[in-house]
Amino acid sequence: MKIVFASNNTNKIAEIQWLLPEYIQLLSLKDIGCNEEIPETATTIEGNAILKANYVTQNYGYTCFADDTGLEVEALNGAPGVFSARYAGEQKNTQDNMDKLLLALATQNNRKAQFKTIIALNLNGTQTLFSGIAKGNITTEKSGNNGFGYDPIFQPEGYSETFASLDIAVKNKISHRSIAVQKLISFLKDQK
Predict the structure, then answer these.
(1) How far, rounded to the nearest angstrom, does the alpha carbon of residue 40 sit from its chain's CA centroid?
(2) How far apart are CA 151 and CA 164, in angstroms?
(3) Is 118 exposed, middle or buried (0-12, 13-18, 19+ CB in 10 A)?
């Protein structure tokens, strides 16, 4: 089974390919000749996942899924949320985003946060959404070299390390994206 993942983010693609069974071949946007930046103009994480999946299905005709992920911090009323990738500006710089978040939480005792991933799947004319949530806390400093995005400052519940300090196999079992992808895989197995 070939399925397009509406992303050119090599980190996300590798993480999801690692989770998928061998019979599912993942194609990136580049693989299908989609080199344009798909606009993420929705006001919700769900909305952006839907926008990206619909863009690929409508313009390229492929079975596809798209994800959007946001980091929701309790003390910041859910921010950065849908703006997680561009929290510190349109340059989408990971270090700037983490620095801005750590500064915003500098005087906060409540450091509870959650990563939320929504996957929108377009298959056989039907759209299905899958969600995954990983709860945890924002650390006071960066730690670890694995992962990407906010992983160096996110400590998942039940662990003393950040996502970026955990072994990739451990992270891939407990992450928000992994939870959503497992739901997607179960659904796809039923479609075989």
Answers:
(1) 13
(2) 5
(3) buried
User: Which residue numbers are catalytic?
Assistant: 68
Token digits of residue 125? 């004319």
Each residue of 61-115: pLDDT tens digit? 999 999 999 999 999 999 999 999 999 998 889 999 999 999 999 999 999 999 9
Residue whose C-alpha is closest to residue 127's, from 45, 43, 65, 68: 65
The SS3 of residue 155 is: strand
Buried b / exposed e across 127-152, counting CB within 10 Å, b at 16+?
eebbebebbbbbbeebebebbebbbb
In this structure, which amino acid lies at residue 67?
D
User: Are 71 and 80 within 8 A, CB to CB?
Assistant: yes
Domain 2-191 in CATH 3.90.180.10: no
In angstroms, the Cα distances linking 69 to 33, 97, 179 are 24, 14, 12
The pTM for the full model equals 0.91
Q: Look at phi and psi of residue 124 and say left if phi exceeds 0, alpha if psi is from -120 to 50, else beta.
A: left
Cis bond upstream, residue 152 (ω within 30) = no
